[in-house]
Design a protein that fits this description.
The structure holds 4 protein chains of 4 kinds.
Chain A lengths: L10 E13 L5 E13 L3 E5 L6 H8 L7 E6 L2 E2 L5 H7 L3 E4 L13 H12 L4 H14 L4 H4 L9 H13 L5 E5 L7 H17 L3 E6 L2 H7 L2 E6 L2 E7 H6 L4 H9 L40 H5 L5 E4 L2 E3 L8
Parallel strand pairs in A: 3-8, 3-9, 6-7, 7-8
Antiparallel strand pairs in A: 1-2, 1-4, 4-5, 9-10, 10-12, 11-12
Helix pairs in contact in A: 3-4, 3-6, 4-6, 6-7
Chain B lengths: L5 E12 L2 E13 L4 E5 L6 H9 L6 E3 L4 E4 L2 E2 L5 H7 L4 E4 L13 H13 L3 H14 L5 H4 L9 H13 L5 E5 L7 H17 L3 E6 L2 H7 L2 E6 L2 E7 H6 L4 H8 L40 H5 L5 E2 L5 E3 L12
Parallel strand pairs in B: 3-9, 3-10, 7-8, 8-9
Antiparallel strand pairs in B: 1-2, 1-4, 1-5, 5-6, 10-11, 11-13, 12-13
Helix pairs in contact in B: 3-4, 3-6, 4-6, 6-7
Chain C lengths: L1 H26 L5 H6 L5 H11 L5 H13 L13 H36 L4 H14 L3 H15 L15 H35 L2 H8 L4 H39 L4 H11 L2 H29 L1 H4 L6
The chains are: A alpha/beta, B alpha/beta, C mainly alpha, D mainly alpha.
C-alpha cells in the first residue's frame, strides 16, 4: 500500500488508518473500525463487503464525517476532511453524498418530494426558485421518475424502489464527486434490486461518479465493483480487483464467505465453508493478533501473537494474513 | 404413489382491509409427500407467508378463507377440525420456524422452558424430563454446552444460535411436517449455510416433510426436492428442483432468475431487471397477473387467467398460456 | 454498575435541588409568621424576639444550611404552631398514608390487570368497548368527585360504611379496613383506567409479536399464552407507569385524607399550608420527595427482576 | 402508491380506487360518540364566553330568602348554602375551568417542547441537565407544587394557569425528547447533515414537522387533566379566590350538606363530569385520527 503510484493525482479518496470507536455503555469501548486504509480512483467503484457487525457502515459514515472518525485521515481530492473545521467542511459536503439502506427512513415522511430532492440546493446553492425547480425535475427524470407526477407527493405514496430512486436523486442533485452507497439494495426485492443496480451503473456513467459501495451480498458487490475490499471485525482482510478476488481468494475469511453464497443453480455443488463454527467475537474485546484467528481453520500460534500486515501478493491484490491461501 | 402427507386444494386466503378485500392467497393447489422438501419461492407480498400461516391455521381475525379451500393433512381436513384438535396438532405433528430469531423467541423465558413446554403440552412430560430432553435437542441442533445454554435467555445467544433454538423447538415433538418461513433471511451468509444444512440433515434423518419458504432462489436450489414459484397469490410454476432450473417455462420464473446477480458473472454486467411492480392484490388486473410485466405477452394473456397446468410427465406445471422452454442463463 | 452509580449521583442532585427549591419557595411566603405566632396584641419587640428565637432574621441560605445539617441527624425542626417535632409528626402519620396508598394501588391493579388482559385478548369486541367506556367514565371523575359520590351512596343511602373517621389498626383489622375502603376506592377508581389502558395497549402489541405466533404454532392453549408468554413482557411499561403514578397517589391521598378525615401525611401537609407553618411544609415536601424517589428506585428493581434482559447481562454483542 | 416511475406502468387501477375511497370514508364517518360531546363542549364554551350578556343573576348575589333552595322558578338550578344562584355560578365557573384547561397545557407544551427538543437532539450534557431538572420537578407531586404556588402567589387565574402549566412541562418535554431522539437517528436526518444543513435547519425542517402531531395528541389528553386538577385545587379552596365561582369550589361548599340538599354538590359534579368526559371522548377520537394519519405517513 505504501508504494508510490504514478497516478496519485487520480486518487479521489484516500483513507488512512481510519479508526472508529464509540462508547458501548458500561465503560467499554466498541472498536467498530480499527485502522483501515484504502484508496478510490476517479471513476472507480470500490465494493466493501462483510457480515453484520464488521464495521462497514461505521467506516462509511466516518468517511462522510457523520460522525467524524476517532482517528485517521480521510483525504478527498487532497483535502483532509477529518481535520477540517466544521464551517469549512459544510460547503465541501456537496462533493460527497450518501444513500442509505432503509428506503423509507431515508425520506422525511412529512416533506414533499420536491423539498426532499431540492434540500441540498436550498442548503448549498444560491439558485432561484425557477432554476431550482428545473434542476429537481431534471434529476427526478434522470433517476427514472416522472417529475410532474412525483414532485408534490409525500414519501409514503411510493414503493421501496421508488423511494430509493428519490434518495438517489437527492444525492446526485449537487453533482457530487463521490457517492457512498450503504446497502442501497438490501431492503428491496430481487426484481427491484436489479432495477436499482442498473440505475446506479447508469448514474455513475452519466454523472462521472466515483462510488464506495457497501453490502453484505457478495454477488451484488461483484456486480457493481471494480475492486472489492473484505472486512472482518473492524479490519480489512483483503483488497483486490473484483474478478481476481472472487477467483483467487487469498484470505481464509474471503474463501469462507464465497463458499457460503447459495448459488441459484442446483448443479453447482454446495460449497464447503471452511470456517470454525462459533460466534463473531465481541467488538468491545477483539482477539489479539489476527482478528479472524478464533474462527480460522489455518490458525497458528503466530496468528495470536502478531497482527498480520497487509501484503501485496500480486499487483493490486493485498491480503492481511500470515498464511494466505495459494491458488 | 402413496397418499400425500399434505394436500392443499384451492386455498384462498383473503384479508379485509380499509381499501377492500386483499387476495393474499388466491387459489393455490399442491401436494407434498412424506420425506420431501418443497421450496416455495417468491418476492415479498406474493403470499408465501400467508400460505404457511394458512396451513398452520394461524390467521388474524380479518381473514376470509374461500368456500372450496381444503387443507388435508394425513387424511384429516384441517378446516373441519375444532380448535382443540388443531391445537393438539400444532407443535406436535406440524411445526413452524419463523424468519427472525430475534423476535420469534420469548425474551422473558429461558430457552429450556420454551423447548420444554411443547413436550409438556403434547407428550405429557414432567418438568424435569422436559428439561433433560431440551438439553438433548439443543445438542442435536449443534449448540455447544447445551447444559449451560438451556438455562439462558434468548438475548444471551447470537442470531444463529437463536435460530438453532427455534429449530430445536420445532423438532421437539418429532413433527411430520416442518414449515420454515424464511429461516435464514435475517442471518449472515456464513450462518445461513450452517442453518440450511442443519435443516436439510434433520429433515432427511427424521424423514419429515418440509416446506422451505424463501425469496432467495439460491436457498432452494441446493436444498429442496421440488420448487413452487409464487406470484401475486398464486403458484405460477412448479417442478422438481433440477427440472425447474434446467427447463424454466414460466416467463416470471425465468425473469426472476435472470434478475439475480451471480458471483460467477463478470463485474458490470447489465442485469435483466423485471420492469414494473407486482399488481395491486385488492384490485388485480384481468387475465394473467404477470401480463403487465411479461416480455412474451399476447392478447390472450390480458383477457384470461391461465390455470396451473401439469405437463403430461407429471414433473412440471406452469400457469402460462405460452410457456417458454428456454433455459435461463446458459 | 456504572448505571447504578450514575443514578445515585442523579438522586443526590435531585434531593438537593428539591429541598433547596422548596426552602426558597416556602421562605418567600407572604406574611410574617412571627406576627401570626405573636398574636394581634403583641408589641414590635415581642415579634422581634420571636424572630430571633426562630432564627428568622438570618439570611435564607444560612437557614437552609442549618436546616439541612439538621435533617441529616434527624432534627427536622419543630412546628411553629404546636411545637411538635416535624420528623415525629411525619413518621407517626406516615403508616396511615402508606396503608391508604397501598390499598388504593392494590384495588386499582385488581381492576386494571384482569380488565386490561381481557380487553387486549378480545380487542374490538363488545366487551372491550364496554371496558373502554367504563374507563372513560372513571378517568373523567377526579378522586374527590368519586369520594363524594361514594359517601352519598355507601354512607348516606346505604349506611354500610363510615363517611369519615379513621380507626387505628389497634382497634381491630376490620374496624381499620372499614374506614379505609371508601378512601382507597376513591383513589383507585380515579387511577385504574390509565393502568388498564397501558396494559391493554402493550399487550395488543405483544400479542402481535412473532414469539406469540410461535407459541400458538406450538399448540399452546390461549390462557397459557396470555399468562405465561404475554403478560410479563406486557407489564414493563405498566411498572414504569406505577412508579410515575406514585405522585398521583400522593396527590390523591392529600385530598382524600382531608375529605375522609384520615390523619396522614397529606392532611398534615395541607393543614400546614393553610397555617403557613413553613418548617412543617418543608419537612413534608422533603419527606414526600424521598418517598417518591425511593418508590421509583423500587420500581426499577422490580423491572430488573421481571426482565431478564436487564437482570442477566448480555454475553454476546 | 403513486405510479411515478416510467418503467412501472400497471394497468389502470383507478376505477376501483374511487369506490374504495368512498367505502373508506363511510366506515370512518364520525359517530354520535364524537358529535354529542363536541356539541356539549361548544355549548359550554359559548355559555362561558357569553356569560355576561346572558341575563343571568349575579353569581355573587345572595338571596336570603332562598338559602339552599332546590331548583325552582327563580333559580332554575336552585341556590347554594349562601343562597347564590347555582346556574349563574356554574356558567361563570366554566370560564375558570375552560381558561385553565386550555392555557395550562399550552404553556406546558411550549416550554416542554423547547426543552425536550434540545435534550433529544443534542443529548450529552444538555440531556443530563434537562433530565435532572425533570426528575427534580417530578419528585414533588404536582398537587403539592400547585398548593405551594397558590399559597405563595395567591389564587388568581394567571397564577393557577402558570402553576398548572409548569406541571405539564415534564411530560411534554419527555414526549418531545423521545420522539426527537427517534427521528434524530433516522437516515433522512443523516442525509440532511450530509448535505451540510445547519442544526437549526434540521430542527425546524426535518424534526419539528415530525414531532408536532404527537404533541397535539398530548394536548388533547392534557386538557381534561388540567380541568380536573383545577377542580381539585378549587375543591381545596386554593384556586381562584372566592367569591369567583369555580366548579370544584362549588362541590366542596355543598359537601357539608350532602344529606339534606345534595343538589348543591351534585349539580356542579355532574356538569364537570360531563364536560371532562366530553373532552376525553372528543380528544380520543381526534387522537386516533392523528395516529392513523401518522401510520399512513410512516
Amino acid at each position: 500500500m505504501n508504494r508510490q503510484r504514478q497516478d496519485d493525482h487520480d486518487i479521489i479518496l484516500a483513507v488512512r488508518d481510519l479508526v472508529v470507536e464509540h462508547d458501548g455503555g458500561d465503560g467499554r469501548t466498541v472498536h467498530a473500525v480499527s485502522g483501515i486504509s484504502f484508496d478510490i480512483r476517479r471513476g472507480e467503484t470500490l465494493g466493501l463487503v462483510g457480515e453484520s457487525g464488521c464495521g462497514k457502515t461505521s467506516a462509511a459514515r466516518a468517511v462522510m464525517q457523520l460522525p467524524r472518525p476517532t482517528r485517521g485521515s480521510v483525504h478527498l481530492e487532497g483535502m483532509n476532511l477529518a481535520a477540517l473545521p466544521r464551517k469549512d467542511l459544510r460547503p465541501l459536503r456537496a462533493k460527497f453524498q450518501m444513500i442509505f439502506q432503509d428506503p423509507i427512513a431515508s425520506l422525511n415522511p412529512r416533506r414533499r418530494v420536491r423539498d426532499i430532492v431540492g434540500g441540498p440546493l436550498a442548503v448549498q446553492g444560491e439558485l432561484g426558485t425557477e432554476e431550482k425547480n428545473r434542476r429537481i425535475a431534471e434529476v427526478l427524470s434522470d433517476v427514472g421518475l416522472n417529475a410532474e407526477q412525483t414532485m408534490e407527493r409525500l414519501p409514503h405514496e411510493f414503493s421501496g424502489g421508488q423511494c430509493q430512486r428519490i434518495s438517489l436523486a437527492r444525492a446526485i442533485i449537487l453533482e457530487p464527486k463521490l457517492l457512498i452507497c450503504d446497502e442501497p439494495v438490501s431492503a428491496l426485492d430481487v426484481s427491484v434490486q436489479a432495477q436499482i443496480l442498473n440505475l446506479l451503473e447508469e448514474m455513475k456513467a452519466r454523472h462521472a461518479l466515483t462510488m464506495l459501495f457497501i453490502s453484505h451480498d457478495l454477488a451484488v458487490v461483484k456486480h457493481i465493483s471494480d475492486r472489492v475490499a473484505v472486512m472482518y471485525l473492524g479490519k480489512l482482510c483483503e483488497l483486490a480487483p473484483a474478478e481476481e478476488l472472487y477467483r483467487h481468494p487469498g484470505h481464509p475469511y474471503t474463501a469462507a464467505l464465497l463458499a457460503a453464497v447459495p448459488a441459484p443453480d442446483p448443479k453447482r455443488p454446495l460449497g464447503r465453508i471452511d470456517m470454525v463454527a462459533g460466534e463473531l467475537p465481541s467488538p468491545t474485546d477483539p482477539p489479539s493478533g489476527c482478528r479472524f484467528r478464533t474462527r480460522c481453520p489455518h490458525a497458528q500460534p503466530l496468528c495470536a501473537e502478531q497482527e498480520p500486515k497487509a501484503g501485496e501478493v500480486s499487483p493490486g491484490h493485498t491480503i492481511a494474513c500470515h498464511f494466505p491461501l495459494s491458488g | 404413489m402413496a397418499m400425500p402427507l399434505l394436500q392443499v386444494i384451492d386455498q384462498r386466503t383473503y384479508f379485509e382491509t380499509g381499501r377492500g378485500l386483499l387476495r393474499a392467497v388466491d387459489g393455490v393447489d399442491f401436494e407434498l409427500h412424506q420425506g420431501r422438501t418443497l421450496g416455495v419461492v417468491g418476492e415479498s407480498g406474493c403470499g408465501k407467508t400467508v400460505l404457511a400461516r394458512s396451513i398452520m391455521g394461524l390467521l388474524p381475525s380479518n381473514t376470509r378463507v374461500g368456500e372450496g379451500s381444503r387443507i388435508i393433512f394425513d387424511g384429516r381436513d384441517l378446516g373441519a377440525l375444532d380448535e382443540k384438535s388443531l391445537r393438539a396438532l400444532r407443535g406436535s405433528e406440524i411445526a413452524m420456524i419463523f424468519q427472525d430469531p430475534m423476535t420469534s423467541l420469548n425474551p422473558v423465558l429461558t430457552v429450556g422452558k420454551q423447548i420444554g413446554e411443547t413436550l409438556i403440552r403434547h407428550h405429557g412430560l414432567s418438568r424435569h424430563a422436559a428439561r433433560g430432553r431440551a438439553v438433548e435437542l439443543l445438542r442435536d441442533v449443534g449448540i455447544p454446552q447445551p447444559e449451560v445454554r438451556v438455562d439462558q435467555y434468548p438475548h444471551q445467544l447470537s442470531g444463529g444460535m437463536r435460530q438453532r433454538v427455534a429449530i430445536a423447538i420445532a423438532l421437539s415433538c418429532q413433527p411430520r411436517l416442518l414449515i420454515a418461513d424464511e429461516p435464514t433471511t435475517a442471518l449472515d451468509v456464513t450462518v445461513q449455510a450452517d442453518i440450511l444444512d442443519l435443516l436439510r440433515r434433520q429433515q432427511i434423518e427424521r424423514d419429515m416433510s418440509m416446506i422451505l419458504i424463501t425469496h432467495d432462489m439460491g436457498v432452494v436450489a441446493g436444498r429442496s426436492d421440488e420448487v413452487a414459484v409464487m406470484y401475486a397469490g398464486r403458484i405460477v410454476e412448479w417442478a422438481e428442483t433440477p427440472e425447474l432450473f434446467r427447463n424454466t417455462r414460466m416467463p416470471y420464473t425465468a425473469a426472476l432468475l435472470n434478475s439475480i446477480p451471480r458471483v460467477d458473472d463478470p463485474p458490470h454486467r447489465r442485469i435483466d431487471a423485471i420492469a414494473g411492480r407486482p399488481p395491486d392484490l385488492i384490485h388485480p388486473p384481468k387475465g394473467c397477473l404477470f401480463a403487465p410485466r411479461c416480455g412474451h405477452v399476447e392478447q390472450r394473456c390480458r383477457r384470461h387467467s391461465p390455470p396451473l397446468q401439469l405437463a403430461s410427465d407429471g414433473t412440471h406445471a406452469q400457469a402460462c398460456w405460452f410457456p417458454q422452454s428456454v433455459g435461463t442463463t446458459p | 454498575m456504572r448505571y447504578i452509580l450514575r443514578r445515585l449521583r442523579r438522586l443526590c442532585i435531585v434531593m438537593f435541588a428539591v429541598t433547596l427549591l422548596t426552602f426558597l419557595l416556602v421562605n418567600v411566603l407572604p406574611g410574617d409568621i412571627a406576627y401570626d405566632i405573636a398574636g394581634q396584641d403583641a408589641s414590635e419587640e415581642d415579634v422581634q424576639a420571636i424572630r430571633e428565637d426562630l432564627g428568622l432574621n438570618r439570611p435564607v441560605l444560612v437557614r437552609y444550611i442549618s436546616w439541612l445539617s439538621g435533617v441529616f441527624v434527624g432534627d427536622w425542626g419543630a412546628s411553629f404552631r404546636t411545637g411538635e417535632p416535624v420528623l415525629e409528626a411525619i413518621t407517626s402519620r406516615f403508616p396511615v398514608s402508606l396503608e391508604l396508598m397501598l390499598f388504593a394501588q392494590l384495588l386499582a391493579l385488581l381492576l386494571a390487570v384482569p380488565l386490561g388482559v381481557v380487553s387486549a385478548y378480545r380487542a374490538g369486541s363488545r366487551l372491550d368497548r364496554g371496558i373502554a367506556a367504563a374507563g372513560f367514565a372513571a378517568v373523567s371523575m377526579p378522586a374527590f368527585m368519586v369520594a363524594i359520590l361514594l359517601i352519598l351512596l355507601f354512607s348516606m343511602y346505604l349506611s354500610v360504611l363510615p363517611a369519615t373517621g379513621y380507626e387505628p389498626i389497634s382497634e381491630g383489622l376490620w374496624a381499620n379496613l372499614r374506614g379505609m375502603i371508601l378512601p382507597a376506592l376513591s383513589i383507585a377508581l380515579a387511577e385504574w383506567t390509565i393502568l388498564m389502558r397501558t396494559l391493554r395497549a402493550e399487550m395488543i402489541g405483544v400479542l402481535q409479536e412473532d414469539y406469540i405466533a410461535l407459541a400458538r404454532a406450538k399448540g399452546m392453549a390461549d390462557w397459557h399464552i396470555l399468562v405465561v408468554h404475554a403478560l410479563r413482557p406486557s407489564s414493563f411499561t405498566l411498572i414504569t407507569l406505577m412508579g410515575l403514578q406514585v405522585g398521583n397517589l400522593i396527590g390523591g391521598s392529600i385530598i382524600i385524607e382531608s375529605i375522609f378525615g384520615i390523619p396522614g401525611v397529606g392532611r398534615l401537609l395541607i393543614n400546614a399550608i393553610y397555617a403557613r407553618d413553613f418548617i412543617v411544609i418543608q419537612g413534608c415536601v422533603t419527606f414526600i420527595a424521598i418517598a417518591y424517589v425511593l418508590a421509583n428506585f423500587l420500581v426499577d428493581m422490580a423491572y430488573a427482576l421481571l426482565d431478564p434482559r436487564i437482570r442477566v447481562s448480555a454475553q454476546h454483542g | 402508491m403513486v405510479d411515478g416511475t416510467y418503467d412501472e406502468t400497471p394497468e389502470a387501477e383507478a376505477d376501483g380506487q374511487a369506490e374504495a375511497i368512498a367505502a373508506h370514508r363511510r366506515r370512518n364517518r364520525l359517530g354520535p360518540i364524537f358529535w354529542i360531546p363536541l356539541v356539549w363542549i361548544v355549548f359550554v364554551v359559548l355559555l362561558a364566553v357569553l356569560a355576561p350578556s346572558l341575563g343571568l343573576q349575579d353569581p355573587a348575589d345572595i338571596d336570603f330568602l332562598a338559602l339552599q333552595a332546590p331548583p325552582n322558578e327563580d333559580h332554575v338550578l336552585g341556590t347554594d348554602v349562601l343562597g347564590r344562584d347555582i346556574l349563574a355560578r356554574i356558567v361563570y365557573g366554566a370560564r375558570v375551568s375552560l381558561t385553565v384547561g386550555v392555557a395550562a397545557p399550552l404553556i406546558g407544551l411550549v416550554l416542554g417542547l423547547m426543552i425536550g427538543i434540545m435534550a433529544g437532539y443534542y443529548r450529552g450534557w444538555t440531556d443530563e441537565i434537562v433530565g435532572t431538572a425533570i426528575d427534580t420537578w417530578l419528585a414533588v407531586p404536582g398537587l403539592v407544587i400547585l398548593l405551594l404556588f397558590s399559597v405563595i402567589f395567591g389564587g388568581s387565574l394567571p397564577t393557577v394557569c402558570i402553576g398548572l402549566g409548569l406541571l405539564f412541562i415534564p411530560a411534554a418535554a419527555r414526549i418531545t425528547r423521545a420522539t426527537t431522539m427517534n427521528f434524530a437517528n433516522r437516515e433522512f436526518v443523516l442525509a440532511a447533515r450530509a448535505m451540510g444543513a445547519s442544526d437549526l435547519r434540521i430542527l425546524a425542517l426535518e424534526i419539528f414537522p415530525n414531532i408536532v402531531w404527537p404533541l397535539v395528541a398530548y394536548i388533547l389528553i392534557a386538557i381534561p387533566i388540567a380541568v380536573v386538577i383545577e377542580g381539585a385545587l378549587s375543591f381545596l379552596g386554593l384556586s381562584v379566590a372566592s367569591p369567583t365561582p369555580s366548579w370544584g369550589g362549588m362541590i366542596a361548599e355543598g359537601r357539608e350538606h350532602l344529606e339534606e340538599t345534595p343538589h348543591i354538590s351534585l349539580i356542579p359534579t355532574a356538569v364537570m363530569f360531563v364536560t371532562v368526559l366530553s373532552f376525553n371522548l372528543v380528544g380520543d377520537t381526534v387522537r386516533r385520527r392523528l395516529a392513523d394519519l401518522r401510520d399512513r405517513a410512516i
